[in-house]
């Protein structure tokens, strides 16, 4: 069974940095897209950044120039380096892997979420 485990969230002051990690495991052959989404209180989940297996990236306008997404295909792991954090970046950040090719076919997997709080 495919699992996705996130880590790296926490409390940081405005202007600070955090690095999120997300590792997928469990009978995986390939993962085409991996990405990060976030959901702030009272708001809908939104895309933050995505990266393909060929390392093509896509960012939300609100994080361009501040966040960097990267991945290690051999480890099925994706990272999100977040710099110059703002209070409006406060949210639960979710890792997404889609599609994930396994021995039984394709599926989409979400992580459980990690909380990022930007506050002084």
Description:
By secondary structure, this protein is mainly β. It is 0% helix and 61% strand. The chain has no helices and eleven strands. It has strands at residues 3-7, 10-12, 18-25, 28-39, 46-52, 57-59, 67-72, 77-82, 91-102, 105-110, 114-118. Strands 2, 4, 5, 6, 9, 10 and 11 form a seven-stranded mixed beta sheet that branches. It is elongated and about 45 Å long. The chain starts with a strand and ends with a strand. The model has no long low-confidence stretch (mean pLDDT 95).
Main pleated-sheet profile = 7 strands, mixed
Give the helix proportion (percent range): under 10%
What's the total number of strands?
11
How far from one another are the termini? Answer: 40 Å
Shape annotation: elongated
Helix/strand structural class: mainly beta
Radius of gyration: 14 Å
Order of helices and strands: EEEEEEEEEEE
Mean pLDDT rating: 95
Strand share of the residues? over 45%
- Which spans of ≥5 residues are poorly predicted at pLDDT below 50? none
Number of helices: 0
SSE blueprint and pairings:
Layout: E1 3-7, E2 10-12, E3 18-25, E4 28-39, E5 46-52, E6 57-59, E7 67-72, E8 77-82, E9 91-102, E10 105-110, E11 114-118
Parallel strand pairs: 2-11
Antiparallel strand pairs: 1-3, 3-8, 4-5, 4-9, 5-6, 7-8, 9-10, 9-11
Keywords for this structure?
single chain, 120 residues, mainly beta, 7-stranded mixed beta sheet, 4-stranded antiparallel beta sheet, 11 strands, 0% helix
Summary?
With 120 residues, the protein is mainly β. It is 0% helix and 61% strand.
């Amino acid at each position: 069974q495919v699992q996705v485990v996130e880590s790296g969230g926490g409390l940081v002051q405005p202007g600070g940095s955090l690095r999120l990690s997300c590792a997928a495991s469990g009978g995986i052959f390939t993962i085409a897209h991996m990405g990060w989404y976030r959901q702030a209180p009272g708001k809908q989940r939104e895309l933050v950044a995505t990266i393909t297996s060929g390392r093509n990236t896509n960012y939300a306008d609100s994080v361009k120039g501040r966040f960097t997404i990267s991945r290690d295909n051999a480890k099925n792991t994706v990272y999100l380096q977040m710099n110059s954090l703002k209070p409006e970046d406060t949210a639960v950040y979710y890792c997404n892997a889609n599609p994930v090719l396994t021995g039984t076919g394709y599926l989409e997997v979400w992580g459980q979420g990690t909380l990022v709080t930007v506050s002084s």
